[in-house]
């Protein structure tokens, strides 16, 4: 059943999603993609932070290439569109997504890391785009990596097909932190719990702003204007900003304030 391909654990406003095809390196077949889309919809209500990880030794090995080969034989060419829509849904989701990269993250696994808002890698993580080895440009992993890394570093991964480890991914800025393997899930969950204490309207607005600047807004004045409009929109939807500023002005600490 597709439900068995994705484990969902709820911890208050935090959810942990675990890809559960360890014998296939958590490659995303159609059933797994469908399960993930359904989970994303279900987690729009009351979930503020989502940890994404994989069962076994892999985070996600990308698309299920064997299934894609069968699809081509039958004329079914929807897999790439389906996978693109899943990743776009993560970017458009109001919750903050944290990738807990526990092992192999190849092709589409790289895309998942890139579309997550934050990422923590295990020292055992191995990230790469092998598509050049079969005469293919990584159609989703390539663009998302090029949006995330400098040109030379993105080119290194795309043109050589070489993998990088978790420490290198941290050094390059592809993930926020690299931690010992046994500490990975606790570290990711700790970040998720910190994020989940903040106002959901503000989190969603900040997430949109991070995507908009500098991707669509590139000059300073327009960026500052966008910032003011973002805060005005937050004030229209929630009293949290007003209350938080009042406490700050009175010398009281807000939840999560002042932590490193």
UniProtKB/TrEMBL annotation:
Species annotation: Stappia indica
Molecular function GO terms recorded: catalytic activity
Family: Belongs to the enoyl-CoA hydratase/isomerase family.
Protein known as: Vanillin synthase /trans-feruloyl-CoA hydratase
UniProt cross-references to Pfam families, sorted A to Z: ECH_1
Any GO BP annotation: isoprenoid catabolic process
Origin superkingdom: Bacteria
InterPro entries: ClpP/crotonase-like_dom_sf, Enoyl-CoA_hydra/iso, Enoyl-CoA_Hydratase/Isomerase
Region (Disordered): 241-260
